[in-house]
Specification:
The complex is a heterodimer of chains A (about 425) and B (about 120). By secondary structure, chain A is α/β, with parallel strands linked by helices. Chain A has 15 helices and 18 strands. In chain A, the strands form five sheets. Chain A has a five-stranded parallel beta sheet, sandwiched between helices. Chain A has a five-stranded parallel beta sheet with strand order 16-15-14-17-18. In chain A, strands 10-9-8-11 form a four-stranded parallel beta sheet, covered by helices on one side. In chain A, helix 8 links the parallel strand 9 and strand 10. In chain A, helix 2 packs across helix 4, helix 2 crosses helix 6 and helix 12 packs across helix 14. The N and C termini of chain A lie far apart (about 50 Å). Chain B has about 120 residues and is of the alpha/beta class. Chain B has one domain: Aconitase, domain 4 (Alpha-Beta Barrel). Chain B is about 35% helix and about 20% strand. Chain B contains five helices and six strands; from the N terminus they run βαβαβαβββαα. Chain B has a three-stranded parallel beta sheet. In chain B, strands 4-5-6 form a three-stranded antiparallel beta sheet. The longest helix of chain B is centred in the C-terminal third of the chain and has 13 residues. Chain B is globular. The mean pLDDT of chain B is about 85. Classes of the chains: A alpha/beta (about 425), B alpha/beta (about 120).
């Protein structure tokens, strides 16, 4: 019997000749990602760090991104503590306020490469599966232990294969596709499992792959992974230090719990209605709902291509006067490129408010939270009750196209109406 | 809640962010174990790493009636609910070691002490 992607990575990283589903494997990850929570993580093991030091200066990737720039004294102190830690232990990979969302940094700066194992103390660490990584979220205690020992445990997951054919229409994106899947299988539909995307993936752009992998956790998945192909290699060009990587992919006779087929031609614009990501509907079935805010960006959909798609709809137009449109680039380099090529400028002209790269409103940290009774259409990844401000606010998740189509009309709008 | 209490829960228990506070909190108020139909993945990890016992057993949850006494036999991989008992897949040896150390951090500390002294 052949092995799945997850089994092959864990065999390699655990130096084992065979593994089976459910087995616990002790692994040494290639990288450990932590963000603003680094200060809390370090606090857990301060004494141990004094005694033993950290295991490696290059293991950690630290980005301050959640509440940037600091919103109050408490967050400022947290950030300061992280900078002190970075200095004391000479952490090599540190990204301070303004560099962007940790997940975008990991892919942009060449830390994520095919076949690598990356663990991070953030749910959306699974995004690097887009680059053929085994990448998954862990908790803070575990991150603290990794700083000290460099190793932890992973359970070999069972796998689901999602096979695609065809390609997206101009009005549909990877976001609509992943919302469709989550709606179909549920928020726990891939619980503990590895999700492999296969088939005509050459028709899925790298940016769409990032969005799809990012939201793997919203179907419960441990990892969501794509094979390494020409699109992956093209993206990695010039990003990796040594340009050496070993792609891994499942054997043809690997065993899957489930194989699901999708035709991308049939994917329609989708939303996740409040207050769970699997509460999905077609945009056309919720059209007309009035909105107060539209959030375009985040690590889920804040890349240059997302802003370009948005500009296709908004260029030369003005958004509804009843809507606040927030623009949240996933990184500084996206911000710079988007200003250089005029994409962000045209969105600002249309009425958008540019926020510094980071997480901010997505998780309700600051900069654009919602009042009671307000409604937001967001290109982010979660719409849990109270996540973006008031518990009595509503967040609809959608693609960048749907977000700006809705900002334009002031109501949830199918992008086909305005494209 | 009191020390030694067991929580009986439904599907995808603990779904949310990667924060470990839910697991920490439940451990702090004295919860010994949680029996659920299924757990959210990161919550599962966080709980094991805090030394909280998690058992996935759909039948036990379905058969539980308020007031039933619930007992867990780790070695046998058996949970009894009132008069009935149900099997669950036994926990892996490494995970039992982590739990018995009182969580991942204590487990790692013991290991560091063994390997590097001080």
């Amino acid at each position: 019997m052949g092995h799945t992607f997850a089994e092959k990575v864990l065999m390699k990283k655990g130096a084992l000749t065979d593994v089976s589903v459910g087995q616990i494997v002790i692994v040494k990850p290639d990288h450990l990602l932590t963000h603003d929570n680094t200060s809390a993580i370090v606090s857990k093991v301060e004494e141990d760090l004094n005694k033993y030091g950290i295991i490696s200066k290059s293991l950690s990737i630290i980005a301050i991104d959640h509440t940037v720039p600091a919103v109050d004294e408490k967050t400022a102190s947290g950030h300061k503590k992280i900078r002190d830690f970075v200095k004391t232990y000479q952490i090599e990979n540190f990204f301070d306020v303004g560099e962007g969302v940790c997940h975008q940094i990991v892919v942009e700066k060449g830390f994520a490469a095919p076949g690598k194992l990356i663990l991070g103390s953030d749910s959306h660490t699974c995004m690097y599966g887009a680059l053929n990584c085994f990448a998954t979220g862990i908790d803070r205690t575990e991150a603290a232990v990794l700083l000290l020992t460099g190793e932890t445990w992973l359970k070999v997951p069972s796998s689901i294969k999602i096979v695609v054919k065809g390609k997206f229409n101009t009005y549909s994106t990877g976001k609509d596709f992943v919302l469709k899947i989550i709606g179909d299988i549920g928020a726990d539909g891939a619980n503990y499992k590895a999700v492999e995307y296969d088939g005509e993936i050459k028709n899925i752009s790298i940016d769409d792959r990032f969005t799809i992998a990012n939201m793997g956790i919203e179907m419960g998945a441990k990892i969501a992974v794509f094979p390494c192909d020409e699109i992956t290699e093209e993206y990695l060009k010039g990003k990796l230090k040594d340009n050496e990587f070993e792609p891994i992919w499942a054997d043809e006779n690997a065993s899957y719990e489930k194989v699901i087929n999708y035709n991308l031609d049939e994917i329609e614009p989708m939303v996740a209605r409040p207050h769970t990501v699997d509460n999905t509907a077609k945009v056309k079935d919720v059209e007309g709902k009035e909105i107060n805010q539209a959030l375009l960006g985040t690590c889920t959909n804040g890349r240059l291509n997302d802003f370009r798609l948005a500009a296709k709809i908004l260029k030369g137009k003005k958004i509804s006067k009843n809507v606040r449109l927030l623009l949240l680039p996933a990184s500084k380099s996206i911000l710079e490129e988007g200003l250089k090529d005029g994409t962000l400028n045209s969105l600002i002209d249309a009425g958008g408010i540019l926020l510094p790269p980071g997480c901010g409103p997505c998780l309700g940290a600051h900069q654009g939270l919602l009042a009671e009774g307000e409604v937001c259409v967001s290109s982010s990844n979660r719409n849990f009750k109270g996540r973006m401000g008031s518990k009595n606010a509503e967040v609809y998740l959608a693609s960048p196209l749907t977000v700006v189509a809705s900002a334009l009309t002031g109501k949830i709008t199918d992008p086909r109406e305005v494209l | 809640m009191k020390k030694g209490d067991i929580i009986i829960a439904g599907e995808n228990f603990g779904c949310g962010s990667s924060r470990e506070q839910p697991a920490l909190g439940l451990k702090a108020v004295g919860i010994e174990a949680i029996i659920a139909k299924s757990f959210a993945r990161i919550f599962f990890r966080a709980s094991i790493n805090q030394g909280l016992l998690l058992i996935e057993c759909k039948e036990a949850v379905d058969n539980y009636k308020e007031g039933d006494e619930v007992k867990i036999d780790l070695l046998k991989g058996e949970v009894s609910v009132g008069e009935k008992s149900f099997k669950f897949p036994p926990l892996n040896k490494e995970l039992i070691k982590i739990r018995d150390s009182g969580g991942l951090l204590n487990y790692a500390r013991k290991k560091l002490l063994d390997e590097r002294g001080k």
